[in-house]
Automatic annotation (TrEMBL):
Entry keyword annotation includes Signal: no
SMART domains: PlsC
Organism of this sequence: Marilutibacter maris
GO MF term (any one): 1-acylglycerol-3-phosphate O-acyltransferase activity
Descriptive protein name: Phospholipid/glycerol acyltransferase
Lineage: Bacteria, Pseudomonadati, Pseudomonadota, Gammaproteobacteria, Lysobacterales
């Protein structure tokens, strides 16, 4: 683990590049080792018995990606109402290669009034890292471009950079 964990009570953390099921395993291992209280969005298909109860206990929240309506406000409300909450999302929304990231993490951060923390997987050096804190602006396209550029050096397990 590299980087400094910020002393912020609430934020949206993005973890990328997300290209393997191993990302979740290593991410949960880091959460436990560092004692982080985070909530992680995961596709609802992962929440079958016996994995579902374990994932929920680890702080995972199932999301049905076929029905995303209202998810931004639900997530923002959870963050606003909590005393402390780090909300983790894979910005790609999938392990498959994508041309564009989903913008939900920026929408959630903006609606909750919290910053975005960049975390990364860099498999060539077997590193999980904590990076920059980004504060969403009024220009989501510029924010996304800036964040994507920051992620350029990091390489996922099953494909190159984001």
């Amino acid at each position: 683990m590299v980087g400094t964990i910020p002393d912020l009570p609430k934020l949206v953390m993005i973890a990328a590049p997300h290209s393997s099921n191993w990302d979740g395993i290593w991410g949960f291992a880091a959460k436990i080792a560092l004692g982080l209280d985070v909530r992680v969005l995961g596709k609802h298909q992962l929440f079958w018995w016996p994995l579902g109860p374990l994932l929920r206990r680890l702080g995972a929240i199932p999301i049905d990606r076929r029905a995303p309506r209202g998810m931004v406000e639900q997530a923002a409300a959870m963050i606003r109402e909590a005393e402390r909450m780090w909300f983790v999302i894979a910005p790609e929304g999938t392990r498959k290669p994508v041309k564009e990231w989903k913008s939900g993490f920026l929408k959630i951060a903006r609606a909750a009034g919290v910053p975005v923390l960049a975390a990364y997987f860099h498999y060539p050096e077997r590193v999980i890292g904590i990076g920059e804190v980004f504060h969403p602006s009024a220009d989501p396209a510029a924010d996304m471009a800036r964040i994507r550029q920051w992620y350029r050096p990091w390489i996922g397990r099953n494909r190159g950079t984001v």
